[in-house]
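Re: beginner question about structure tokens

> Can someone show what the tokenized structure looks like for a real chain? I only ever see the sequence side.

Sure, here's an example I had lying around. Input first:
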Amino acid sequence: MKNLARLAALALAVAAPLALAGPAHADATGSITGDVWLDSNSNGLKDVGEPAIAGQWMVIDGTGNAVQTDAKGQYEFKNLPAGSYAVKSTDRAGFGQGWTTVGGDSAFRGSDGKLWNPVVLTAGQRVKGLDSGFATAKVDYETVQILISNRDPKVGDVIDISASANPNGNVYDQFGGQLSLPDGLRVLERRGGMPPYYATEPAGKVTGFFYDRKHPNSYEWVGARVVVEKPLSAAEIKFTVWKGIFASTDTNPANDVLSTTLTTS
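And the corresponding structure tokens:
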């Protein structure tokens, strides 16, 4: 009986500290928070008085984790275990807005709304201030120039013809263009930095288009090396800019087309 009593007392002595210790481990989850706002003056800074954007979806790529901003434009991803999180601010092009970039108060890229680098959370870490700004888009899609390597070629000569365009605005956008060549200039080689729009170009056309959104004031070229196959007299060479997502905001349609002439002998 004495031995049984000693064992019972020992059991109570061991159990008592465990009961006082509480849970075996504390909650070690973290969070990611930030604000979404309308950058009214497109300077990339969250200025006093600029309005919050409510109802904006923020997502973590590759997961089903998505939250909306509240009436104050604030969002929060809660209960996140330690790990890497690729947060994205979803597109608002349907509202006529693009991600703002200059100034640095927005943590998200202007081209696709993603963070430059994923957030790496340690256990229980709270990351604040991942703010996302949007600007009301205004884009002037403009043709810039047409360059011809030889303005007085002869039949049989090979010359280069290139044209450039620019999405002159306050947000990233798609854009491209089409260079139209007269009959008598045969394309030997496509040139320029614009990705081809067509797998096979239409006769007399050289085209390019950026489906990825490009930085405002990105001067890009499309063109060709051509051979002169017959005499030409003031034949028109025309370049037409192709507009992107924010085409309806174009502030100056008068500069959408540029042309020049070429005479050969």
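Each token stands for a local structural state, so reading them left to right follows the chain. Confidence is low (pLDDT under 50) at residues 1-25.
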